[in-house]
Design goal:
Two copies of one chain form a homodimer. Chain A is globular. Chain A contains 19 helices and 17 strands. In chain A, helix 1 packs parallel to helix 3, helix 8 packs across helix 9 and helix 13 packs across helix 14. In chain A, helix 10 links the parallel strand 12 and strand 13. Chain A starts with 24 loop residues before the first strand and ends in an 11-residue tail after the last helix. Chain A has 666 residues and is α/β, with parallel strands linked by helices. The longest helix of chain A has 33 residues. Chain A has an eight-stranded parallel β-barrel with strand order 6-9-10-11-12-13-14-15. Chain A folds into three domains: 122 residues, Chitobiase, domain 2 (2-Layer Sandwich); 343 residues, TIM Barrel, CATH 3.20.20.80; 153 residues, Alpha-glucuronidase, C-terminal domain (Alpha-d-glucuronidase, C-terminal Domain, Alpha-Beta Complex), CATH 3.90.1330.10. The interface between A and B is medium-sized, with 22 and 22 residues.
Chain lengths: 666, 666
């Protein structure tokens, strides 16, 4: 017995397709004998069909393909495209790389696992091309084993500052490759302590092994880089990107690193952010910093992913002119076009920090001459710590579908990050992952839907939230139609329910400082983080219009005009952009205050309904899964009640306006 | 050079009294040759007079005294009384114990250190009898070296779970004996980890040595006891005070402990409090728990000090009936008279927890048949962390002077804890100490005035705050009249200034949770600690009258009637007892809201004035002392500004009532 679940790669017995003749023979393109990825693909196929259907297929090799993933820009997509078609008594897979073969295999296994009819599914042939070149997980794992914002146990990469490579490492690679992930950053973006020594002899051997394992599943290894390495491990007194000594140190270091870790694909850098060092310290631009490194790693095919999470985290709460929401755009737009072609700017989905509802970052659709990657967070930092159920794919779908008006057509976020809009060399999606060494990987078993879903969505942004959720449930919990329906009924509305019982109308941030779990309406109101609701006895919200901080004008028209107007702004974001009286009428016809009361009472009630739905599943699904989620629902309801009562009490006490429906407010 | 200051026992050169003939010969009562305390007294006298005046006095021994401190009840006071009178060419000390001789010696040295004329001071003879039998410091030192609520470095008693005995240990004993302390609890009341093993072989040798050192300065050694020792170190499965196995274990244990630590005077116990185990766990009363232990330690002359800090720390903030303020009285009054005569109940000065302003606990003046000790806190947990200057002696004076109406006369708190009111066997004052291994012992040099002052006040509750502060300044900083005047001008109003810029009108608690430093108006409002201000858009305060929680009625009349009435209740406590509209007129003529604005603006301004006063002292006092306090004033002003602005903004935003004076509110 493994001490962790294999989730959707468990390959337990399935009923459908047992008699499918096409599954008896699978034809693959020929690969080099030494191709690990192809070998893994074949093994996976055999294990999956054996486990689920007790079928031992004949494997037939056909035409030759490139054995290594192609890593230069658009060709990632070319190389990862695959086709599956039925042939007489068999299935044919066409693909240009062994990674693509792997994805085709997982496609077939998914079809079987979901008990969909193989012959119907592939009757007309199926060709799939990934939506995004890079589909990446960012681990915020620290080398002491802790995980920043981790809610699923400790790291499975590190114990006591050592890298651990074992069976779980390989199964992790299988697990994420099976949903289409092709890149992983294995250490926290806040690089400190032992992690600063990642790029030294101390860890090269292990990293090289890890990179090999990942490569066998089409996954590129990235490291988070300490921007101040020249000082912290290099013995220099500067990290100035224009300093010759600094540049020279990095040249030697990168030559060493790429030699010692041949599979290394590049680095993720958080600089000048929340106390981390960066080029600003030396009066240089973000582009100076990113380009210096990009210039050096280019000859090794390396990529520099540079995070745009740069803002003043020492704001005075009295200051109403500075606006954290503006910071990303203000800091990065002026240098659009200055970044080297192997630099990618990684942009959080919203301008703040993974709140349950934010407008899309105006950098997406702002930047036109810069490689861009969208960063989302499946670690539920502000969305319930994997205690509360919060299926985030509907949110990601909204973000991807957001029309930025940055060009005549192909102007959605999905278009931009796919590389289509601006014909970008590198682009894609990254998620701060929700994994840890818990038995079920994600703390709450249902949080697995976010891990599964992120990968699937990044691979194919055309999939719907429902489709993804249904796949997850069928592959990991049950094929029973009632069970599937009930769990979809829990997952699909869960994000909006979480939103309803927490922070209303896009205002965000009313959380316990530091932990970010649980309600504290004023928790950040008088603090230095730029995160304020500005509520007084008359109204609430932040004026980010042309009369306020001007943030709304960072968007392209017509978005700018819509957000700038309290009448046109969508309800769900109205307090993000406007300071409004409690008596202001929303599009819904409700006043702001009544919306606050209604949504909180409803959200709490709906959370109770979700829990009750889950309780109905007792005996119908695996006991361990049932109990895991049930126990978390218990905590979710305590949390939801506190949010409901605290938020309502706070605003009733402040506004003095009673609930129209006369419900209990404390 | 020692790596710590000797503060008021430094004995630096003095100018006055250099020609005083009386200091050439000091006559003492005869003591036994082996009497360590007498030996220490003589050595101290010689060192002090040599250091301050370059005088080497002749020491003449007279009549015999009891060599050991007498520990049974009232006789502590008898034994510690001393008289000092002038004789021809000398001074005569009369005393019934060597501790009393020591106190007389420190009296003379204090007179010299303050440059008061010896011949005038003692012209008519001076007889001093301590006000309180027990004058105790409670260390919240943990054995890992940390100090709970410690703001002066680490523990000087413990390093890495070992007891350290060195020169500083002895100098600590000198330091506190010199101000009249005669009892010390050396470990945190929250007994856990290694501290649970204090009563085992592991620490007996060191504790025995420590007890000897303390005894040499008239100081009784106490330990905090883990009530659950039977379980944690005894291997039993119960701590039920009526369980025969439990009783039998304690009998054996206490026999061992008192044998191995012969100087041990007894134990302090925090039971059934904030998660600590206690008799309630077994359905027993607090008296059951205390008496069981007291019964056993009695034959060794031991005392059990039982803390009354018992309340429900899992309150629901929605619950307006439960009142933490009531808990001490509700839990301890019903058993008044049931406690053994070697039990002392240790009662925090207020019913909550060391806020800057609380009413006096109604247990003081409630309990009539129980030994009582007043607990105050000189560790500035809620009063500025020894960053903000907050001279607490004026507060302690108010508490001691509080008329409880528990008897016809002698009904003040000072009377009760002296033992006079109810002719108690054991009683006195304890302070949670503010010491640590910082060079100056108390973090902020001026916080030394609280350590000095607590001892002096506990020894003589008749001393005034001014007198004590002046002694401290003269003995440790300067004899310069301007300097003395300026520092008194800083110390004396500092508590009321701290009160003004923090929480108004007795409401308390608007602090950052966990750290207790800095403002967070709603920090505890929706939490489980029973600490609420109940502010809404119309008013603020907790109704503790007969129409509310009834707490006010726990007092004797006329106090109960006064507190119960919003008209009669003193302004400074009015929000502790009443929920009042912001427009309610105080005795001062101001409305509640205007009082909030005024006091906060004034408090911040006054804090700036204190800092400016201190700046004037540059060059006039020791540089290190100057810089230590200056740096803390810098931080105090940041703190005071945040309090002022956050509290004013919070209540302006909530009430919508503008400041009459139109000052800037954010």
């Amino acid at each position: 017995m493994k001490n962790y679940a294999e989730l959707w790669t468990a390959y337990k017995e399935r009923k459908s397709n047992r008699d499918c003749r096409n599954l008896r023979k699978i034809c693959l393109p020929e690969t080099e004998a030494s191709d690990k990825t192809a070998e893994n693909a074949v093994n996976e196929l055999k294990a999956g069909l054996k486990g689920m259907l007790d079928i031992e297929p004949e494997i037939v090799f056909g035409s030759k393909v490139t054995s290594k993933p192609v890593t230069d820009g658009k060709s990632i997509l070319d190389s990862e495209e695959y086709s599956i078609s039925l042939i007489e008594d068999g299935i044919n897979i066409a693909a240009k790389s062994s990674s693509a073969i792997l994805y085709a295999v997982f496609d077939i296994l998914r079809t079987v696992a979901c008990e969909k009819d193989i012959t119907k599914t592939y009757a007309d042939g199926k060709t799939v091309r990934p939506s995004n070149p890079l589909r990446m997980l960012n681990h915020w794992d620290n080398m002491d084993g802790s995980i920043e914002r981790g809610y699923s146990g400790e790291s499975f990469f590190y114990v006591n500052n050592e890298i651990v490579i074992d069976e779980r490492t390989r199964d992790y690679a299988r697990l994420i490759a099976s949903v289409g992930i092709n890149a992983v950053v294995i250490n926290n973006v806040n690089v400190k302590q032992a992690a600063s020594y990642m790029i030294t002899d101390r860890y090269f051997d292990k990293l090289s092994q890890l990179g090999e394992i990942f490569a066998g599943y089409g996954i590129r290894l990235f490291l988070s880089l300490n921007y101040a390495s020249t000082i912290e491990i290099g013995g220099l007194d500067s990290a100035d990107p224009l300093d010759e000594n600094v540049i020279s140190w990095w040249k030697d270091k990168m030559a060493e690193v790429f030699k010692k870790i041949p599979t290394l694909a590049g680095f993720l850098v958080k600089a000048d952010s929340e106390g981390r060092p960066g080029p600003f310290t030396y009066g240089r631009t973000q582009a100076d910093g990113a380009n210096m490194l990009a210039n050096i790693v280019k000859e090794y095919g390396g990529i520099i992913i540079w995070r745009c999470f740069v803002y003043n985290c020492r704001q005075d709460w009295r200051d109403r002119k500075t606006d954290r929401a503006r910071a990303g755009y203000d800091n990065f737009m002026p240098m659009d076009g200055d970044y080297h072609d192997n630099v990618i700017l990684q942009i959080k989905n919203g301008p703040m920090d993974f709140q349950i509802r934010e407008p899309v970052s105006p950098l997406l659709g702002g930047l036109k001459k810069t490689n861009q990657m969208l960063e989302v967070q499946i670690a539920q930092e502000y969305t319930g710590h994997q205690i509360d159920v919060c299926y985030l794919i509907p949110e990601f779908k909204e973000i991807l579908g957001f029309k930025t008006y940055c060009s005549e057509d192909k102007d959605s976020v999905a278009d931009i990050i796919s590389g289509d809009t601006f014909n970008s060399r590198y682009s894609g999606m990254a998620a701060v992952t929700n994994t840890g060494n818990d038995f079920n990987w994600t703390g709450n078993y249902l949080a697995g839907a976010n891990l599964y879903g992120f990968g699937r969505l990044a691979f194919d942004t055309g999939l719907s939230s429902e489709q993804i959720a249904e796949e997850f449930v069928r592959m990991t919990i049950s094929q029973d139609e009632t069970v599937v329906k009930e769990i979809l009924g829990i997952l699909l509305p869960s994000r909006e329910i979480y939103e309803r019982y927490t922070s209303p109308l896009g205002i965000g941030w009313m959380v316990q400082p530091a932990t970010h779990y649980g309600c504290s309406v004023d928790g950040y109101e008088y603090d230095r983080w730029g995160t304020y609701h500005r509520a007084d006895h008359l109204g609430i919200g932040v004026d980010r219009t042309d009369k306020g901080t001007g943030y709304a004008l960072q968007y392209n028209e017509p978005n700018a005009g819509i957000y700038n107007s309290p009448e046109k702004c969508p309800d769900e974001l109205v307090l993000f952009f406007h300071h409004l009286p409690y008596t202001h009428k929303l599009h819904s016809g409700k006043t702001v205050i009544q919306h606050i009361y209604d949504s909180h009472f409803e959200g709490y009630e709906e959370a109770q309904q979700l829990a009750a739905k889950w309780d109905q599943l007792k005996g119908k699904i695996d006991d361990e899964v049932f109990e895991n989620v049930r126990e978390r629902f218990e905590r979710q309801l305590i949390n939801a009640r506190e949010w409901c009562d605290q938020v309502n009490s706070y605003f009733f006490r402040k506004s003095g306006i009673p609930d129209e429906k006369g419900r209990q407010i404390w």
